Amino acid sequence: MDSRLNCLLCGSSTDLILNFRDKRYYRCTNCLSVMLDPAFFLSPREEKQRYEEHNNDVYDQGYRKFVMPLVEKILLHYSPEASGLDYGAGPGPVATVMLKEKGYRSINLYDPFYHPDRSVLKKKYHFIVCSEVMEHFHCPSEDFKLLRSLLMPGGSLFCLTNLYHEHLNFEQWYYKNDPTHVFFYHNLSLEWIKKQYSFNDFQVENRLIHFKTDNPS
Fold it and tell me: What sign for the dihedral angle of Cα 78, 205, 10, 143?
């Protein structure tokens, strides 16, 4: 067995850091991301089955509270006339529903399982929402390249996820135990994404990550 793999984000070498329940996890030597060995990724059928076990009720108050920081950030930065994309929207696109309740009408949905119309990936958007999505990316380098290409000048990518850091007890971290969670980002991962995909800046507030592009001159 090869104990080293290349990072699925930056392509650098990785080190094996954990064998857990017969699964292997690797940490990148460059961007410090942690990834599940792709040999243990679920099949598409298994992945979809797992998503359908989630709470997908867009009117559930707990679910709404969970995504409220993301919705509030969009309300702060973009008017209802702005166009948006809910990327990885899943069966319960609660952020989109909440924004539409605030008058936002130009929001498209994309999800490979539930909203597979790829024509929405040929348009440009003022903002993109990835709510509990980026940890599911099997090819994060390709996903972030695509997401950046879909933003207008001055656009934003808003993500919700739990970040990995060195002081975390990864073996005991609940977040890795969802079998669809396969890639975990460090602050250095976000720095790499910013530079590689020409974002102007990013901010982290608890679980909310806001990648920004340059404002049009």
Answer: negative
Alpha carbons 173 and 4: distance in angstroms, whole number: 22
Q: Which CATH architecture fits 42-160+188-212?
A: 3-Layer(aba) Sandwich (3.40)
Domain positions in the chain are: 42-160+188-212
pTM given for the model = 0.94
Distances (CA, A) of 72 to 68, 76, 194, 209: 6, 6, 23, 13
Express each pLDDT in 116-168 by its tens digit: 999 999 999 999 999 999 999 999 999 999 999 999 999 999 999 999 999 99
Least Cα distance to 147 among 199, 192, 185, 95 occurs for 199
